[in-house]
Specification:
Number of domains: 2
CATH class of the largest domain: Alpha Beta
Number of helices: 12
Radius of gyration: 20 Å
Low-confidence stretches: 111-115, 152-159
């Protein structure tokens, strides 16, 4: 008999509670064991029923989602997916929720788009299965407490690093980073630790909708010594700047007639699973900087980035991957590790040191 994943849905909209319940229970492996119309009712339900995963709205009466999330993480730690509005305010609240321990988010508007409902449902179900399979909420919360206590300083623990102990110093000219599920929290504990003297451009693809990437870039910029910004089409690439691909668009590079490297923001190719795509961005960076690109693959579901890392390795380049224990979902890093492409596999709290020492 299958041990079903037990889920609780918390949302003040009866339509959303019903929609999410139908989506989740379309899988024989997921069972809705309760639903609640506000944060207080939801918190009490989670504390009583102890589900494997929770979907949690942000704006609710009686008790809002952020307050409920804090109480859940304190009293009954559980994997939580936030149901987020695709607005600037929604993006900022979602990033706060991810800092507080939520594992990921569901864009609320997507649940209303009937034409894409099958694709959305399949992705949501797959994401929940992967998150619960990882079963990492308690470990993540312990790690979060350590990282929060340390602020932007590295956690003074003995590193557990696989592969070579460090990356060789080969004169890297660019760093390309791919990340997805669990990314916003991980990036906030990674990017601010980049040393100010890292005189190369950094390019990041984080799978997120529009507006979310801009809010993420602004948040990271406020925490970092390096400039962090959402990339713009046609801008000249500058060393010491971290560029984040805008949600809904691909980020690539192009050289103009004088050899200056510029950013290209496009909707093509349209056939990729994700937009922005790690493979597209990283492949484009490698075409410009060759083996002097440092490829980094972090927490996320699926295989996006693996083909670009394969291309980089064929040229003699190097790859750093996040380890399983510090990932929310060990999918994207697992793909490059299993293929033998990762030169160093390290926990989140050690990755910035490795990058700083290599560049």
């Amino acid at each position: 008999m299958i041990n079903k994943i037990k889920a609780v849905v918390i949302d003040d909209s009866a339509f959303m509670r019903k929609s999410l319940s139908i989506m989740l229970e379309s899988s024989d492996e997921i069972e809705i064991i309760g639903s609640a119309k506000d944060g207080l009712e939801g918190y009490n339900l989670v504390k009583t029923l102890r589900p494997d995963i929770v979907t949690l709205d942000i704006e609710m009466p009686v008790m809002d989602g952020l307050t409920a999330l804090k109480k859940i993480m304190t009293d009954c730690p559980t994997s939580v997916l936030m149901v987020s509005s695709l607005t600037t305010e929604g993006a900022e609240s979602t990033l706060k929720a991810l800092e507080l321990g939520a594992v990921d988010f569901i864009p609320k508007e997507l649940s209303y788009v009937n034409v894409n409902i099958i694709k959305i449902k399949e992705e949501l179900v797959r994401k929940i299965k992967e998150i619960v399979k990882q079963n990492s909420v308690k470990r993540r919360l312990e790690r979060l407490k350590k990282l929060s206590a340390a602020g932007t300083a590295a956690v003074p623990a003995k590193p557990k690093i696989y592969g070579t102990a460090s990356l060789p110093r080969v004169g890297y000219k660019a760093v390309a980073i791919g990340i997805s599920t669990g990314g916003p929290f991980s990036l906030q504990k990674f990017v601010p630790l980049f040393a100010k003297n890292n005189n190369v451009p950094f390019f990041i693809v984080q799978h997120m909708p529009p507006k979310f990437t801009k809010s993420l870039a602004e948040r990271l910029n406020s925490l970092s010594e390096l400039e962090v910004k959402e990339a713009e089409d046609g801008e000249t690439v500058r060393n010491g700047v971290v560029y984040i691909a805008p949600g809904g668009f691909h980020m690539g590079l192009r050289k103009n007639y004088s050899g200056t490297v510029q950013i290209a923001i496009t909707e093509e190719p349209s056939g990729t699973l994700h937009r922005p795509s790690v493979d597209h961005m990283m492949g484009s960076v490698v075409k410009v900087y060759g083996k002097y690109t440092l490829g980094i693959i972090m927490t996320g579901m699926g295989r996006d980035g693996c083909e670009a890392i394969k291309y980089l390795k064929a040229l003699g380049g190097y790859c750093l991957a996040q380890d399983e224990d510090s990932c929310v979902v060990y999918g994207m890093p697992k793909a490059v590790v299993d293929a033998g492409y990762a030169d160093v596999v390290a926990p989140l709290e050690r990755m910035a040191d490795i990058v700083n020492n290599a560049i």
